[in-house]
Amino acid sequence: MQFLSKNQFHKVKLHFIKSNHYKVIAKINSVKGHFILDTGASTTFVDKNLKEKFKLISEASQIKASGAGPEQIDAFVSKKNQLKFGQWRLEQCTIALIDLDPINTAFVAADLVAVDGIIGADVLKKGKAIIDYNKNYLYLK
User: Fold this and answer.
1) DSSP code per residue over 109-133
2) Residue 105 is part of a domain; what is its CATH number?
């Protein structure tokens, strides 16, 4: 841990939830939200129904996203957003907007709180992320 703080990594608390996911609190455009950390997701997503809440301006062009299943999901892209975890900040962050209703329906059915979005590998890579699975912390540089 001394090595990480010495090398300007910022420590972010992760909350392990009963779905075996990590939930993290972050701010997008200065608005606090609850997100799932997903190292397997290539892109960071926000529920399209929360576009106004997070002050996201999406482009008119529509793209298709895909998950682990065979179906493609309609997605819109919002560029030039600020993403912040504690003291760590990413300027000019691109965020995709998708329908998270299927995920949140499953969460609510499992007695879990719905999430606002998913933090993907794009953000983790830019932050040179290190995950301490033993102590439930994310370190970002």
Assistant:
1) HTT----SEEE-HHHHHHTT-EEET
2) 2.40.70.10
pLDDT in tens, 15-34: 999 999 999 999 999 999 99
Residue 62 CA: distances (Å) to CA of 68, 76, 107: 20, 5, 27
Burial class, 36, CB count within 10 angstroms (exposed 0-12 / middle 13-18 / buried 19+): buried
- Of 45, 50, 28, the C-alpha closest to 119 is 45
- Total number of domains in the chain: 1
Residues (pLDDT < 70) of the chain are: 1, 60-73
Specify the pLDDT at position 29: 98
For the chain, percent of residues with pLDDT exceeding 90: 79
pTM: 0.88
**Structural domain harbouring 129:** 2-140
The residue type of 43 is T
Of 56, 40, 35, 20, the residue nearest 125 (C-alpha): 40
Q: Which two tokens stand for residue 140?
A: 């970002």
